[in-house]
Every structure is written in structure tokens, then in C-alpha cells.
Amino acid sequence: MLIRSFPAPMFATNCWVIAPAAGGECIIVDPGMPDISADIEMIIEESKLKPVAAFITHGHLDHCGWLPKLVNDGFRGKIFCTSPTKEIARVILYDSAKIQEEEAQRANKEKYSKHEPAIPLYTVDDVNKVIPLFRVVDLDLDITITDDIYFSFFYASHIIGACSISLHVNNEILVFSGDVGQDDDVLLFPPVKPKKADYIFIESTYGNRLHPKNDPLFDLELLINNTFQKNGNVVIPSFAVERVQTVMYLLWQLKKQDRIPNIPYIIDTPMGISVLQVFQQNSKWHKLTNAECEEMCSMFTLISDYRDTIEVIYDKKPKVVIAASGMITGGRVLSYLERYISKPENSVLLVGYQAEGTRGRKLLEGAKELKMYGKYYEVKASIFLIEGLSAHGDQKDLLNWLSDLTEKPKKIFLIHGENMASDELRLKIKEQYNYNCIVPYLGQVIEI
Fold it and tell me: Fewest CB atoms less than 10 Å from the CB: which of 99, 102, 115, 176?
């Protein structure tokens, strides 16, 4: 059995191609954004492999964003996922396609792209071909693909619908963690730990960090009230899936306790609003009841139409705005920052992981200016980070995720992390469990 890794820089994608036999059929796990899809496609073609099935651990773009390109190139296999993941992936893929079409159009009009002409990675029409291939699978059920291959999903926390995979191939058990959530997440239950595996592929986003034990309610309260006193606006770039809902929950708790002012609280992310519906339809996946979801949502003004976005931006009253994307790589948060980032009375609150090279990371590192839509804007707004709200488990959570294994795995692969994080987690696993760990490189072939 051959396995090839595709963990791209900044883990923009996290894809694995598994070939039970050379030159035959293959399985793809987490086909993320197609920034390196040409490399993957070339290797699949050169190896004379035929993709027959794909697995999606959860609906984030870095785990499903290659699907439109894959299907457009002829893939017609089943795409296995949980029910919430299907709905989240549907929302995210359509939203991503629309954003890419809009940004390509704007880049061509304003001529700021290095490509001539700028074209989207994929379109809405491409996404239309993906949706019919999804196959929903419940947790903890063994599903047979061929005589020698079967799998099951188990709960991973992280975002609604997220799962890990136990994949049985040729009498070997391969466990893919997907993204592992925190043991004490505000909205989600703790991740389920694997019991048995020959080979484990575990994420390492926070492999070298521990989430601080700060009180996010206190931090939010202080920031909002201080900004309100300056007659400023609070902009919270947030991932539309899970982080928007987590921040909404915390703000709702503060408002119920009369700890923050009676000002507009705005959710400006159509995708995030769609995800709220998924929350209400899948109550067994999270801690809130439908009644609590409805009460929480009633506190916020939900915006879908971009004309309303413009109206909110130019409204001079203090407000709190939650808008995607979480790393400020795109989305409507850019429109707010174009107007607000250069004014010292405003605040920008980062609430999730900021990958290297993103605008969010640059703000954290003290950037004096920010480039958006081909123009530079001076950074005068206050920049804050509330740690501990990440959808990813920290080093302690990841080590704990391995604690129920009944037998020593043959090998553990540290994936989905920057080099320092992956390597430090490798050392910690070696120290605590004495497991054999490696950090794979892009395109590495692993033979089992």
C-alpha cells in the first residue's frame, strides 16, 4: 500500500492519496484547496492511479476545496462525510466559488492581479457537479468500500460535523484525526479518542502551544467597553463555521449579564448565517438547544445583502461587527477594515489561528500597513487577540487524544501544522508515549 502526502505550506491543503496497490485504484482523504492540485493530479496520473472515493473529515475549505477541480477533471466516485459536514461543505464551496468569481471580476476591472486575465480557481457551476456525489455516513458505523477496505467515522469536535476516520485497508488500520477540537470547547463535546490504530495521521496546528486559561468573557467585556468609550467600532474577523457561533454565544452571555453596552451587534457573513441553520438542525452535535440558539440569534442583526454592509460601514454609531474571513484573507471583513483600520478609535479583535503569510498574522506581528485590493492602508486601529477560542486543540489536547490507544501504533505522522509545531509535538509524543513519529514532507511516498 502506498500513501502520498500533500501538506502544503501554511497547511492550505491537507490531502492524502492512498493506493492499496501500485497502479490501481486510490482513495483521497481531505482534498483541500487546489493551490497544489496540479502537483497531486500529475502524480496520480504518472502513477496510473484512479481515484474512486474521497473522505471529508469536515467542511472547512482546506479539507474540501479541491473537490470542484477534482470532479471537473473526471472524478465520479463517492464523497463520504457526515450529514452536517455535507451541509457545511455545500455552504462553504458555493460561498468560496462566488467570492472567487467576484474577486476575479474586480481584479480584472481594477487591474491589480499579476494574472492576465485573473480567473477563479473554480465557479458555482463547478460546485454544482460536486454536491450529487456526497454520501452521508453516521458516526460509528462500519462502511464497506471493497472487500479489503472499510471505514468508520468518530466524533472529532473542532466544528459541527467534524470527524476522525478509522480506515481499514489490507488488514492495516489507518486513523486520520482530521482537525481535533478542544476538550473543553464552549459549544461542542470533547473529541472521541481512537482505541486502536497501526498508523495515525494527527494534526499538529497547536503542537507547540498551550491555550491560556484566561477568561474570554472578561477579555471581550473589557475590549468592547473600552472601544465604546472611544466611540469606536469593534471588528471581529471570524471563521464563518464555529468561531462565529462561539463569539455569538460569548457576546450573548455578556449581554444577558448586562456587562456590555446596548449597541448594534452585527453578523455580516452569509455563510455564517447559513451555518446557524445547520446548528439548529443538528442539535445532537453540540451543547445548545434549539431554544437557546433562537434566543442567542435574536440579539444580533444578521446581514446577507452587501448593500446593507455598505450602510453599516458608513453608520457612525459604535457597533460590534463579526465578519468573515477569520485570517482576513478575503470576505466582507476587508470592506470594514478598508474603512476602519486607519482610525485609532477602532479595535480589531482576532479570535482564531492566524497562519503565516495571512493579513491576520501580519497584524499580530505589528504590521504598520495592510494591503487590501491592491492598496495599502495604515494600521492605526488597536489590534487584540483573545487566545483559547481556537477550534483546534492545543498540545495537551492532542497528547490526550492519543491516551486511549490499547496498543502501540507502528508509526505516527504529524500533519497539518507549521514545522516548529509539528516537530515539538513529535518530541512530546516520543517523551510521553515513546511512539515512533515523523513529520512528512510535501509529496512524500510512504509504503506500508
Answer: 115
